[in-house]
Amino acid sequence: MADSRNATKPSARERLLAAASELFYAEGVQSVGIDRVIEHAGVAKASLYNNFGGKEELIRAYLDTHYISTTQGIELMLARHDTPRERLLSVFDAQTELFAQPDFHGCAYVSASAEARPGSMVEQAADEFRAWVRSLFTSLAKDAGVANPEALGKQLNLLYDGAGLSARMDRDPSAAVAARAAASALLDAALTSGRKRTTKRKASATA
Length: 207
What we know:
The chain is elongated and about 75 Å long. It has ten helices and no strands. Helix content is about 75%, strand content about 0%. The longest helix has about 30 residues, at about 175-205.
């Protein structure tokens, strides 16, 4: 009979990725050497190169894992709400939950891309996540009936980024609450402006 313990034992790849995720996020991708990751994972050095090729590929895999967990967390929060307004604002509720975690160390993409080479896999991973956030906010703004969803989406993205930096640098989890309030005000202003333009056009058409 096969030992059931062997069936659930993490593979070398999984152990390397788990170790990298823990160390890179807590201490930074530049300050953590590859030997520390290997030692922390408890695998042979050859396992790193067989599974990832090198440190940059491992960083990219770590960021891809972070992408999945972050986007899934936001999507789960969105699913709790029905109205376009609450769905948009709930993105900041997801941040509130994230910032409250005891192991929160700021945005993984900001940290990893700070010293990344232009065009590197690390920079590409950061670009992909940021594009997803901007696209999400733009789509939610459109669903809410905003006349210029692209402009509001960019403003909301700035709030999202700022909340993350404030929560990390000020050690203040309530930064997301402040960002949510600002997002609410921006959304109301955009909707009001759109209604005024529509009313003005109708008035001009009937004049």
